[in-house]
Amino acid sequence: MRVLNVAYQQLRRYGATRVSWAQKLTFGLIKNDHFTQGFSDRDVAAFEAPLGIRDLGVKRANRRLLETVAAFEPDLVIAGHCDMISNETLTQIRKLMPHCAIVHCNNDPLFVPSNVERIRSRATVTDAVFVSTGRRELKMFEGNRARVYHMPNPVDASIENLDNSHRTDLPIDLLFCSNSDDFTQRLQNVKFLKDQLEGQLNFKTYGSFGEKPVWGRDYDRALAQTKMGLNFNRQEVHYWYSSARMAQLAGNGILQFTHANLKFDELLPPETVVYFREMDDLLASIRSFHHDDAKRQDWAARARDFFHREMNSKLYAQYIVEASLQIPFSHDYVWARDIHLDGSMR
Length: 346
Prior knowledge:
single chain, 346 residues, alpha/beta, Rossmann fold, six-stranded parallel beta sheet, five-stranded parallel beta sheet, 11 strands, globular
């Protein structure tokens, strides 16, 4: 199958990239033997624009996408986070390739109002939308042209290639990395933990409290030294929503602490992720696992095995292809047991 993956590919970062779910999707498609072509809207807009001023290249980027479709002749177009590509262009693709399925994948949270509007808009012109929040939260997008699905944050064995669950010599006891203060008060909770745990363990908070943020290989090196991590989202409100941090921690064998409000205990096996409701509960759990390294290793190993076995990029990509083209599911996808092939809830 020929698949065109339209999303920001970070070409102009020249290797200093962030972990990208769009890249994992490409890897998964290739592992499933799909001929996959990438199109990076932001980069093409900058390359095509006068003086490299990206906003001046938006129209040209849309034209280049249409040229790419005509040349590549895809069976499936996946429009990810590609805000520079208009709905009008997606409609033109449908006219150009009437037998090609067009879907939207969205990995951003629903507590950001502009993202809700983005999904609603894409749902009017695509065949399906895939959102990284649990299906029961997605009813607001029903009734448009698109079918509605949940998608997880996957791991990829080439990216999440550490296994810290076997390590006892790791210098960072607890890690939290962040770069955004929008729509959140999570740093208040991080500050509480820093104050309470000061002098008791090595707690690194890259991107906050005077510690520089880490990207690319610096982020990899931080993960490689870490026993436990905080999976703090900007808000802890939506069913099965987490940032990609959850997969990054679990996939590398790092024990993580996640808010119970998100109901991941209904998706993940027992004794894989540590859940909390109140900060005092979280503080007690951190101290408990810090003083019981064998237990930390056991839980982290279970989480790593589950993510690499059941929530990997190959299964993730094949699920999107099958749902997009209405091919009966070839696997019992753990994240899709509450939905039918057409996206409706069981």
